[in-house]
Amino acid sequence: MSSSVNVANENGVAIVIIDNPPVNALSFHVRKPLYEALAALRDDPGAKAIVIACAGRTFVAGADITEFGKPVEQPELRAIIALLETVPKPTVAAIHGTALGGGLELALGCHFRVADRGAKLGLPEVKLGLLPGGGGTVRLPRLVGAAKALGMIVSGTPISAGEAKAAGLVDAVVDSDLLAEAIRFAGEMADRGGPFVPVRDRNNRLAETDLSAFDAQAAELAKKARGLDAPRACAEAVRNAITLPFDEALAAERQLFLKLVSGDQSRAQRHLFFAEREAAKIPGKDLQKRTVSRVGIIGAGTMGGGIAMAFANGGLQVTLLETSDEALRRGLATIEKNYIVSVSRGSLTEEAKRQRLGLFKGSTDYTDLADCDLIVEAVFEDMAVKKEVFGKLGAIAKPGAILATNTSYLDVDEIAASTSRPQDLLGMHFFSPANVMKLLEIVRAEKTAPEVLATVTDLARRIGKVAVVVGVCHGFVGNRMLSARGSENEFLLLEGATPGEVDKAFTDFGWPMGPFQMGDLAGLDIGWRNRKARGQTAVIADTLCEQGHFGQKTGRGWYRYEAGAREPVADPEVEALIRAKAAERGIARREIGAEEIIERTLYPLVNEGAKILEEGVAGRASDIDVVWVNGYGFPIGKGGPMFWAGLAGAGNIVERLEHWHRQTGRAIFEPAAMLRRFAETGSWESAGGAR
Ligand code: T1G
């Protein structure tokens, strides 16, 4: 046998062990020996049953995603599953860890599935812009019913072993020694005798399908697809399982899969899958990471409270520090209320809420932070205040404690210079609400020690964050590029667009919402305060703020909001204000189309990203994509701004930037050298964009 597939035999039960670290992906070097082993065992009289199991931490977690886009090497997964279904003796999948995608499809090719209680089972292909391409859309409904299968496949969310047993996906759930239990189960099935009906021939769960209810469910799910092709294709494939004979449905699935796997959306989503994992890698071998078990958070306001929850949600002990008992009480009360809401929504159990609240300790005394391994400040966004905090921490924090600032904009090097241990200091820029948003920009200051960076990056994964290491500059990566994306917004309004037209261009592009609706949601007063602090103006937004129109929270901003509603309604007074401001400036208004809106907002976004790469503030173009997809809602089907630049055509972007630079003279349109090189070479790496 090959090193990736080994076969043993215990009391007449053949055991096929797949061993392909780290996640037992069904790479070609697994598929070939697996096929050969199963073909031999099918006809082997010494094998009365077959168990398929995996070594390492998980059952097969899917096809090998790195193989997509390359010539397919036989045998394909589909051939292995088809072979399995010709085996006349009982076949059992022994599932632990995560049986995902092609892994679950392999298990569906078996007659039975035995799962460890901690296992998870799912078909997450939709998250890669795909659909299950190994028969999952036709076999899963035959075990769990069409409605459950549709929900699992369109969401891509795995289910627990217990839920899988209840749904009919798993035949037995075991609490210990999975392999021994699976072997025993297989032996019993063999001794009991057949027939052993392959999943493909089990149709009774499908027969009970209410097709009109199914179509209504599929239509509801399609609303969330927001321009993505895969969710719709998933629903179509599951519907085929109901209405077509098995082999026709399987053939239709194959066609749908081939169309998706070669499309831009799946390429974009597969790019993001690897980009997120790449972003978490810190150059430098075997960095000695520090232990972090207790975290101190300074400031129990919106950010501090959210950050504290993020750490508690990851199982860490939290000491929350405030300046007064009243502020501390308020902060802790908000945290408890948030957990109560989660329990009421069913996203958290009562027990988990109790456990998490038990991790908190409140204090108004800095010395209580002395035992913390990491201390994160989330105090007022003012350099003097931050320096005062870190000055105190220098005397109180234990040796080796990591010090982090949650600043969104301020110079982390300057903050580091205010402590006696700059090597232990970095930025941890959380995004609000910090207990929800996945993105964490980890700001590497000039003197930050590599092992501090590695420790915090590792910790980010532990608390469920997507970490990206960024350098020091105003706004780091995300907010700096957000400024570039928004710098033309008011010019577009003065020259003829309405807030609704700009926002529609964004939502048609695939954004969850456009910049004006986003401004109303976040509160226009935040930008107003920042502009005043930097001596900047925005003629229309400043006027709205002077009128007290801050957006949703005041019922009016760029749009009107009926009492308590969040749906934006065009406000004729705002459009009149825009026309008046344009007239004051002698601007002749004109029709502005979606294409121009995208060129004057998203091309500067890409251009700023190229400058950030040029300066080394981001180490990889893909890191920038990870920031924008996880922190700002950039459409995943376009892969992030830097990946999308390739789809949109970098040469075209350079040309249009030059056009707008000639038209307006504004610097944001001057193409970055890195962008020009990308246009010439076709890749950010060869343009010099990878450190
Ligand atoms: N193929 C190739 N490499 C993979 C992989 C895969 N399916 N899954 C993970 N890796 C790599 C990953 O890049 C990383 O590499 C390392 O393994 C550890 O991963 C025909 C078409 C299983 C829950 O979508 O969800 O089957 O960075 O850091 O946090 O219908 O990996 O170490 O070099 O994520 O413990 C469907 C994808 C594929 C599951 C483990 N399957 N994987 O999480 O580790 S398409 C998936 C995951 C398919 C069929 C279709 C997670 C995990 P490196 P990791 P983790």
Keywords:
globular, Rossmann fold, 2-enoyl-CoA Hydratase, Chain A, domain 1, 8-stranded mixed beta sheet, binds (2S,3S)-3-hydroxy-2-methylbutanoyl-COA, N-(1-d-carboxylethyl)-l-norvaline Dehydrogenase, domain 2, 6-stranded mixed beta sheet, 30 helices, 691 residues, alpha/beta, single chain
Give your account of this protein's structure.
The chain folds into 4 domains: 251 residues, Alpha-Beta Complex (2-enoyl-CoA Hydratase, Chain A, domain 1); 179 residues, 3-Layer(aba) Sandwich (Rossmann fold); 88 residues, Orthogonal Bundle (N-(1-d-carboxylethyl)-l-norvaline Dehydrogenase, domain 2), CATH 1.10.1040; 88 residues, N-(1-d-carboxylethyl)-l-norvaline Dehydrogenase, domain 2 (Orthogonal Bundle). The protein is globular and about 90 Å long. Helix 1 links the parallel strand 2 and strand 3. The chain has an 8-stranded mixed β-sheet with strand order 12-11-10-13-14-15-16-17, sandwiched between helices. The chain has a 6-stranded mixed β-sheet with strand order 1-2-3-4-6-9, with helices on both faces. The two termini are 41 Å apart. The longest helix has 22 residues. It is an alpha/beta fold. Helices cover 49% and strands 12% of the residues. The protein has 30 helices and 19 strands. The structure holds (2S,3S)-3-hydroxy-2-methylbutanoyl-COA. The site of (2S,3S)-3-hydroxy-2-methylbutanoyl-COA has 25 residues, from strand 5, helix 3 and helix 12.
